[in-house]
Structure formats: C-alpha cells, structure tokens
Amino acid sequence: MEAQRSPNASLGSIRGLLERIGEQVTHQRRMTHASAALLAAALLAASPAASPSPAPDAAARVSAARSTISISGGRLAGPGAGVLRDALAGAQFVMLGEDHGTREIAQFSGALFETLAPRGFDTVAIETGPVLAAKMRGWLASSGERPQYATFESAHGGATAFYGWQDEYAFLAGATRATRGALRLWGLDQELMGASKLLLESILAQRPGPHSTALIRAMLAQDAADYAKAAQSGDPGQMFLLQVDPSSLHALEASLKQDGNARSQQLVAGLIATRNIYANCCNSLAAQSNRDRALLMKQTQVAYLNAAGAYARPPKIFFKFGGEHLYRGLNPLSNLDLGNYVSEIADGLGLRCVNILVLGTEGKQSRFAGIGKPWADASYKLGDEDHDIFAFLTPFVHATGTSPALYDLRLLRKNFSAAGIADKEYARMVYGYDFLLLIPNTTADPPIAQNAF
Question: Which of 88, 261, 371, 392 is buried most deeply by CB count within 10 Å?
Fold first, then answer.
C-alpha cells in the first residue's frame, strides 16, 4: 500500500515543475530574440546602407509650381490661363485677394471676370460699404457712369475706397457689360471714413420727423467744418467720424426709433459701426477693430444672401478685397476673416471655392497721402517697410523675373513639412490661398475725377 503524501509535498512538486517549465520558456525566448537579431544583422549586411532622403529644394519646388500668364485683348492668355480655367471649373465662389492701387491688378481682375461671367458669375462683392455700392450700381447701369461718379466725388471727399481710380472703376464697368447689365454689386465693408455726409444725407432722404431732421442738419454742418479742417491739414483724425461725440450718434439713433423708418434706423446703425471701427483702428483696441470689421463683413454678406433668398443656394460670387481679408484659416491679423467664412460656407454646402492672391513685386501704386491731398504715385517693393509681411516671397520673386507668373500653391502643399520651411507666413499663404499671381513693374492707377482724396 502506497504511503499517503502530505499536501505540502504535493505543492512542492508542482512548484518545482512550474519553475522548470518557466526556465525552458525563458531559454526559448532568449534563443528566439538572438536568432531574430542575427537575422536582422544578416539582412542589413546583405543590403546597401540606407541614406536619409534629401529635403526638397525650395527654389525648385517654387519653379515647378510656376506658369506664365498674360492678358491679351482683355482676356487671360498663356499656360497659366489654362491652369486657372481648369481650377475654376465648377467653382461657386472665386476670391481675389489683392494689393490696392495698381493698374495691372485691376486689369487682371477684369480679365479674370471675363472668364467667370460665361460660367454664371453675376455677383461681385467688393471692399466698399453697401450704401456706396448701391450708388455705384446706379451709375454703372446708366450711360454717363464716370461723369456721375466725378460729380459725386467732388462733393463727397473721402467716401470712396479704391473705385475712384480709373482702372478699378473700369473693372466694374466691364463686369456690368459682361453680365449684360445684370450685375449684382455687393458692398460688404464698412463705409469709408469720409462717408458720414453720404450716410446722413441718405437718412435725411428717408424723411424722418422734425427732431431727427434737426439733429441730422446740425451734424451735416459739423461734417462740412471738420472736412475743411482735415483737407487743410491732411489729417484723417480731424474728420467728422473721428471727432463726433459718440453720444450724439446714439441720440440720433434713439430719435430715429421714434420718428424714423426701418431704413433710417439701419443707416444710423451703419454710421455708428463705421465710426467705431475707425475710432479704434490705430490704438490699443486695434485688434478688436479688425475683429469688428471682419464680423461686419460676414453679417453684411448674410444680409445680402437673405435679401436675395439665396442663403442655402447662393449665387456665383466673385469677391475682390485686400489680400489679408481672403485667407482660409487665420489671416496675418490673427482673424478668421471673410475668406475663411466663405470657404466654410462652401464646405458646408458642398460647393467649390477658389482663392487667388495677386501682388505686384515692385513698381508704383496709388497711395493715400492725406485728406484733400493728391494721390501719391508711390514706389514700392515686396519686402519693404510697407510690404514687410511679404518678405518670405523672395524665392517667388526671383522665379518670376520680368513677366507675370502664376504659382499653383496647391502643389506646394504636397510633402510640405519635408520642405523644411519654417516661415509661418509662407505656410499661411500656401494653405490660405490656392494660387499666387506676381506682376512685376506695376504702374499707379490714376484717379477719375480729381487728384485728391
């Protein structure tokens, strides 16, 4: 009869067995790891040594994205024109960000719209206020367009942004013809600093009650006196909108709620918004002023769409604004501006948006020289004090040479991080715009009516 084992003896045997099994498993793992290491070493020895891929040459990338473009008979020409036409196929929104004051950029705008009009583009959104845009639309629809504008400007100094120049106005006239007179002109910006007279006259035309009428007439007298001072000194800070006590404007706003109609109330709200944007544009609240301006443009865009009953199915729109306003994403002013807003609308509605930045590399441009002072034919160069934000464009300028060049920025997004470009403004442009057009040797766009602002 076999002797009975104690429970402790059984547990000890099991423990010993498990320890021996563990040792064998550990030995097998070590052998496997050693074999794997030997195999890897053999493979490395049998193959050529791996070398790191060189970073793409920045200048070569820029040159590969370049094509020549020109204007012939008022239309786009050259290989770049074909690249643009292909990119514009099926687009609902086209956004042209620009530097202001040159004939060549205005002429490119006109040639580009000649390409867009047959594709159903019948709306142009511009960097003016809606009140001035409505007036210009009336002039453009009549045969005596430029004489009417000249008469207006002589009596409303400082009310027109950009379209008091000959080629910029010619762009609007050409767009009117291209749409057979059916052009919709949308002014999305605040009114200009000298537009207070225009706005006050427009409110008066709504025939408000006697109390509001008295307030408006007193403001018009003050506006005339302030403009005379500003024209003598050239200082825009002496204009009515920067001199008026804000409480006076709010008093008019309250009065119009009593004796004015809805349109007059809308106009005084625009006057107050314009005043606030300019009052804070150059002080510690400048960032808020830029934010308020961007917000106003977005809300005005919505108002136009709602008035047309076309928010869910917007028309085909050509936007023409200063370059900083039309970036996708944050712009150089750290704003989510109009360009980003429209791009997001396009994404949400499943529509296409094409963003084009156009700049002169150097030359001359019309530049503000003071209230009542002649426009300056100012020399400039990308990267100078007034254009220092574009210093990163040096490789593009070198590749451009003496003829206009179009750069397809979409190509530069591929393997962008591998290019090793650290400049944040370079990256902002590549992702914020689809195309860059550089025009060498620009000339200043001359004024229509008088050589004064």
Answer: 371
